[in-house]
Amino acid sequence: MSTLLNPTIEDIEQNPEVKSFIYQQIAEFEAFVTPQTIVAVVARDPKKLAIQYETEGRDFDLKELRKLYRIGIVLTEAGAKVEAEGVHEDIFEAIKLAKDNLLKELITIQDSVVSNQDRLIEINHYLQPPVLH
């Protein structure tokens, strides 16, 4: 669905180059998802960042905000949801930033769940020579 207010939606839905780039980027989540994970790439209104920027005391120009792409990537499974977004004047860079921010979030979650002992066991497993039968 595209609107004049949000041409980003049209880019995501209709532009084969953008769609291909999205598929390339979300492939990097393979280690963090299961077949039941739902991955959504969404276009968000960059003008809505004005309130956030104002609250944070950041300088911004509303006209410049309108020129930006604001892309969110959301992973959902079994009621759990993790998401991140990227904002940039280039749609490809906005998608990449969203992916990078989400990967950072996933790695942080993974690091808090996996213990040091589990990591050492995994490292030692890969350092052992293969056993031949």
Automatic annotation (TrEMBL):
<dbReference type="InterPro" id="IPR036567">
    <property type="entry name" value="RHF-like"/>
</dbReference>
<protein>
    <submittedName>
        <fullName>Uncharacterized protein</fullName>
    </submittedName>
</protein>
